[in-house]
Amino acid sequence: MLQNISVRFDPVEDRLVLRFTEGDAAAAVEHWLHVTRRVYAVWRKDLQAMVDRSAALPERMDRGAKAVVAAAHHRAMASQVKLRAEPAPAPRPETPEIRPWLVTAVECGRRKKDERWVLKFMLRERAPLTLVLSDSTLHGLIGAIARRVKVARWEFTALPLDKASSSPSGPPPALH
Prior knowledge:
About 30% of the residues lie in helices and about 30% in strands. It contains 3 helices and 6 strands, in the order E-E-E-H-H-E-E-E-H. It starts with a strand and ends in a 24-residue tail after the last helix.
């Protein structure tokens, strides 16, 4: 079970650093991941599609209205997640147990049996890491990532989750 998510920007590496903690305090397992600008450029469209799907809007709804409602739904869901801002920790020497793994791709989807969200991180030199998220955890993660991307000043075109627009945002092939 996912217990904690941490997102920060590493300006030296120009990467997002994601830390996922699973299990209880006695047997916690941490997964440290590096997400590059190039991987995020693709992943952000999938994140937007997940936000759109989470809002469960009717297909016949106007695209502009869908974008506005999905963005409002995302803000409402993300605001319910317990977040705290912490200063970035001092750099630690890399050891095999805490070295961040480089993410080469991310597959996103929804499990049919329980409607929970699935993120599958493809990693260099390691087996993929699959995480299962609730609606509120998904929206909290997306909100935290969006804030770190602003800090990073990666200057991507705003998606509806950041700013309501009339641009279409269809689901990626991995969503089902």
